[in-house]
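Thread title: Can someone regenerate the structure for this chain?

I was given the following input by a collaborator and told the matching structure tokens would be attached. They weren't. Posting the sequence so someone can regenerate them.
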Amino acid sequence: MKRRTLILTLILIFVFGLTAGYYTAYLTILHNTSSQSPAGSTLLLPFLTSKGLDAGLFQQVWQIAKNNYVKQPVSDQDLFYGSLRGVVSALKDPYSVYLDPATATKFENEIAGSFEGIGIEIGIKKNQMTVIAPLPNTPAAKAGLKAGDKIIGINHLDTSDMSIDYASSLIRGKSGTKVILTIGRLGWPQAKDIEIVRAKIEVKTVEWEMRNTSTAYLKISHFNSDTVKDTANAVKGILAKNPKNLILDLRNNPGGYLESAVEIGGYWLPSQTIVTSKDAQGLVQTYKSQGRGELANLKTIVLVNGGTASAAEILAGALQDARRATLVGETTFGKGSVQELINLPGGSAIKVTTAYWYTPKNRQINETGIAPDIKVTLTDEDYNADKDPQLNKALELLK
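Best answer:
Regenerated them for you:
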């Protein structure tokens, strides 16, 4: 099985399939199904019996769904994949999900940086579906959605107790179609319906410019498969300008591939620990950078906010622990759990939470987030007036 470590906050909102079913057994049991009974029931029976469970109950539920549902015929494949989604959903972890082959293919395409949807990422915070970050120049960003917005409803369906993968399936869709999000925001007297037209999204994750003769500005909006290469090109361009200072903007960066964040950390922290993980058995794994510290001599400020999550929090926390950068802005999202993507036979995959992340100084990221060294709030009034007090504070500190 091919394994790839992911630390996506919710990955992109266009990713996950519908949640279905509640009960299942091993992934190997139900590969071939018949119209009469779950295939492999001769294997299912001893497996469940050995666990003190009633194999007959699973078989009975399968038969009732198969034969009694009003819309016939019922697809054995749909029941099979639904039961696999069910066993993962029983973990009650919003970041663990089973992906059927079609959804797994879409997932790989989307994390690579091209997809259709509205360009938003979501998570669960304080038991509420929450906007982690709208991606730049996407329908979500153009509609005015912000990190921290509460998603109260999707197409007028209440999101209370709704799984993230189901919410994702409601929001994603073909270019040109519409979705209505009911959004609650701090300071609003009541929630508002916002209609957004879906589009094809191309994610450009790295941008840079010189803010003045001595200060370079580098924005990383996501850690996807192109980010390392694009960052390398940006660093080459930055160093050619011979700046003394650097502003690294990780605001509204919802995460992505762990490996990308660790590799990019090497520009400031050569051959140093970027993050550690600890699993259910207490096994600690350390991730060290392999870079050469090309940016280590630049005075660096990192901009963070409530939309800075997962891989972005890891990078920010490592730079803060090593005193290689000053963090300016607001406390980050607090998505510090490890998801591992395991590709399965037949093209499907499972994304499952396997561990928690810790900064090099053993600070847990999950739910707590990373607090900035200098707190600067960007208000709605600032946003609407195209003001950026966080960036302005960074420039002031670098004078």
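Confidence is low (pLDDT under 50) at residues 1-42.
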